[in-house]
């Protein structure tokens, strides 16, 4: 397997600084809680929150999706064991990548059901061409073509998460 760099460490850091400033402007005076989706968004979470200079809380959720072998249906399984209390909070849901959109849409719905006063969404990457659920993230780091990427939190069978850049994985 080889990893071909697609987005450099410097580009990621610059973009997160920009997004951090926008989030500060948008959430000043609001009770912000960033809820990150494990495990892929951990690296982005750690870098992003250190660029947001307004008070905010951090929570984690874990979701795994299982795609049926013979159907296009996806079942999302949520691990609630460390689900944060979001009642009355302005939640910013953070994921590593928006692909079909099913994970982000289902989690946003779930957080609303659990009493969040508002749920907006942020993704490091948005993949073009595979979206099936009409969700429009409020903050997008980078738009990428339909390729399989790893690094900066994103894995292939749990490897490659530690790379400081995002790259395309190929045989
Ligand atoms: P969605 O529900 O939007 O189809 O799926 C989003 C999830 O699929 C992401 O959180 C991520 O775990 C996984 N995913 C989608 N595309 C990629 C990719 O190119 N690379 C990696 N490592 N994971 C991906
Ligand atoms: Mg994921």
Describe the structure.
With 171 residues, the chain is of the alpha/beta class. The chain has one domain (10-64, 77-141): Rossmann fold (3-Layer(aba) Sandwich). Helices cover 23% and strands 36% of the residues. The protein is built from three helices and nine strands; from the N terminus they run E-H-E-H-E-E-E-H-E-E-E-E. It has helices at residues 9-27, 42-49, 102-113, and strands spanning 2-7, 32-38, 57-67, 74-79, 90-98, 118-127, 139-144, 149-150, 166-170. The strands form two sheets. The chain has a six-stranded mixed β-sheet, with helices on both faces. Strands 1-9-8 form a three-stranded antiparallel β-sheet. Helix 1 (9-27) packs across helix 2. The longest helix has 19 residues, at 9-27. The chain is globular. The N and C termini lie close together (4 Å). The structure holds guanosine-5'-monophosphate and magnesium ion. Magnesium ion binds next to loops.
Query: What is the correct CATH architecture?
Result: 3-Layer(aba) Sandwich
Bound molecules: guanosine-5'-monophosphate, magnesium ion
Share of helix, binned: 10-25%
Sheet with the most strands, sense and barrel status: 6 strands, mixed
Query: What's the CATH C level?
Result: Alpha Beta
- What would the principal axes of the Cα set say about the shape? globular
Number of separate domains: 1
CA gyration radius, whole angstroms: 16 Å
Strand content: 35-45%
User: Unreliable stretches, pLDDT < 50, 5 or more residues?
Assistant: none
Which structural class do you get from the secondary structure elements? alpha/beta
